[in-house]
Every structure is written in structure tokens, then in C-alpha cells.
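User: Please run a holo structure prediction.
Assistant: Happy to. Please share the sequence and the ligand.
User: Here you go; the ligand is NDP.
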Amino acid sequence: MPDIYCVFGNPIAHSRSPAIHAAFAASTGEDLLYTARLAPVDGFAAAVAAFVAEGGRGANVTVPFKEEAFRLCDELTPRAARAGAVNTLSFVAGRILGDNTDGAGLVADIAGNLGFALSGRRILLLGAGGAARGVIEPLLAGAPAALSIANRSADKAEALAAAFSDIAAVDAGNFAKMAGKSFDLVINATSASLSGDSLPLPPGIFAPGALAYDMMYGKGETPFLKLAREQGAARCADGLGMLVGQAAEAFAVWRGVRPATGPVLAMLRAALSG
Ligand code: NDP
């Protein structure tokens, strides 16, 4: 019998995670079965309990359950505790262990796949929700020259900056507050691209050679990436590599084996463009 894993979300039908983990299992020779499970919006904890009772070894967690997953855990890794959100659960000896691999996935994509070293760069993070919170510490670990956070609701950006003030001084405010500054890397961690909205970014924020990165994927050129291209960003990237990167990190947490991400990313890219 293979070890069983799943991803919980709502909605979940279009999740790419089962295909990604099946490919990882095939390439590493690990014997596991990974499925997508729809959890009722008010029934996440019960869905997890049922999966554990069936013998589940671990699970990923996606929208809208990452913060509830955080609260459900008996034990957290330092990066999950910092993120305030959990995307990777391990079920060990009756206990629920929580981790957050989103930040590692983002940094692996930007620094690894895209070859964009973070060291010494000026980074602007757009958004102050769960995704933004989860990537701040891994970004700071890359030793950027500076990190700024801009969000539609300035108070949330400021609260996030305050939560990381023991690691670095982070400039924060609304989008207009970034006027007059320029950045080497601008990461869209808002969900504006989901609804097709563009962000009111001041002109001039993309420094020469800048990389624009949208965590959104599978939607073609998002309004953010279109704006970035028009404002002169040298390179644009979507979040597909982050998705594969966070999955690889979760796979390594569960199985102790790190799968290669390149072939899986190429497979997904081909499927999305086909
Ligand atoms: P949250 O709901 O926690 O946060 C949403 C954020 O987006 C808030 O900062 C909110 O601002 C902002 N926002 C929403 N709509 C708009 C808008 N129309 N204009 C400006 N700002 C807006 O979402 P998450 O942080 O969990 O997810 C954010 C995005 O990241 C999603 O698109 C998700 O798909 C993507 N993601 C991708 C991953 C990957 O692997 N590629 C992994 C994780 C997330 P305000 O505070 O003002 O409401």
C-alpha cells in the first residue's frame, strides 16, 4: 500500500498539486498516492481528522485554510510560526506538525530557476496577506539591500513590517508611498490578478534590469505583469515555479528526498500553454 497524502482546499478541483507530486514520486521512486480533497469551508478540522483516521501521512493546505491549519497544529517549524500560516502538515504519532514551504519555494524559483540573486537587491513586496507574510523571512535571509512592503490597506503593510522589525527595518505603506523609489525586484503577492485588477503603482518603481514576479500563475500575462512590461521591467515571471518549488520542499519534508523541479515545471508550463 502506498503512503497517502493530499491537498485540502476550497475550491480544489483545478489544483496542480496531485500531478506535481505524482511526478515527484515517479522521479524519486517513492511509493505514495497524493489526491486533492475538497474540505467544507466550515469543516477543515473534521476533514483533516478523517484523513488521519484513514492513515494519511501528510497534507498540503491551500486557500482558504492556511491560517486555520496553523491553529490546528500541535507543533510548528520556526518558519511556519513566523509566517502565521501552514501549507504543509505531517501526521506523526498522533500529533500534527505544521510547516510553511511557500517562502522556500519562492526563493528557489527566483534565485535558482530565474538566476536572480537576492543579495544586495532592493525588493518591493506588494500585498500583506498570508502569501506575503510567508515569504518575508526567506527573502530577508537572502540579504537584500532593502525590503519594502506596499499594500492597498496601508495599516496591514505597516503591521507586517512591525512583525519583522527584529530582523530588519522594513519600509511599509500604501502603493502611493513607494513613489520616487525604484526596486530591482517587485513581487506581486496580492490576489488582485485573480480578479483581473491592476494595481495603482507609481511610475518609475522598476529599476533598470528589474525582475517583476507575480505569484499568480496560469492566467497568461496578468495586469501586474503587463504594467511591469510597459513600465520597463527587464524580466517578468509568473508564480508557477513557486508552486513547484513549495511542493518540492513539502515532498522533502515528508520523504527526506528532494525531487528535481525542472522537468515538472516544464511539464506544467507545456500543459498550461497547450
Ligand atoms: P490573502 O487573501 O491573504 O491576501 C490578499 C492580498 O491581496 C491582501 O494584501 C489584499 O489587500 C490584496 N488585494 C486583494 N485584492 C486586491 C485588489 N483588487 N487590489 C489591490 N490589492 C488587493 O491572499 P494570499 O496572500 O493567500 O494570496 C495572494 C496571492 O498569492 C493569490 O493570488 C494566490 O493565488 C497567490 N499565491 C501563489 C502561490 C504560488 O505557489 N504561486 C502560493 C501562495 C499564494 P488588502 O489587505 O487591502 O485587502
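The mean pLDDT is 96.
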